Amino acid sequence: MADLTDVVRFRAVNRSFCSGIAHRLFWNAKIGLTPVALRGGNMGWKYLCDASEVGTNTVKLVDVDGVSVLVANYGTGFRAMPPICPHMEEPLAESGVIANCILTCTKHLWAWDLQNLSMIGETEKELKTYEVKQEGSRVLALIDGEITYDFDEDGEDDDDFFN
Ligand code: FES
Q1: Which ligand 1 atom is the nearest neighbour of the CA of 85?
Q2: Which pTM was predicted?
Q3: Does 158 reside within a domain?
Q4: Looking at ligand 1, which residue's alpha carbon is closest to its atom 3?
Q5: Which residues does 118 contact at the CB level (< 8 Å), separation at least 6?
Q6: Whose CA is nearest to atom 4 of ligand 1?
Q7: 68-123 pLDDT, tens per residue?
């Protein structure tokens, strides 16, 4: 997980990175993400991890019956979400930074308040999440299938982002 000092470097490195379908395929392959239904149609509350496995202001990537889920500890609670940024599919396990309950994707600085899921600043898409609860030290999520985002296939927005 990047820290706040990596923001400028991330922006410089990723500014020229390819976009659109190739971008999505690259990152999905990198993090092993494939759209799937839960294996065996097994739905309901699923164990993600123990609370102690996700430190304050960190994230952990877990696999739940074939669905990749990112668990975020924002200090006063946990969120579970798809492992990619809703903007350009950046893997949030690598580019996500949490501070003051705000999750920021360091690629283009979209950000969300993890307490109420409001969008911060220039962010244009909501962060989708799975419902989460804790039973003792166990963090659980209600997973009835994989949450996905719709992305612009032509990537025009991606290329123009900094222009
Ligand atoms: S890919 Fe996350 S803010 Fe652009």
Answers
A1: 2
A2: 0.75
A3: no
A4: 108
A5: 112
A6: 108
A7: 999 999 999 999 999 999 999 999 999 999 999 999 999 999 999 999 999 999 99
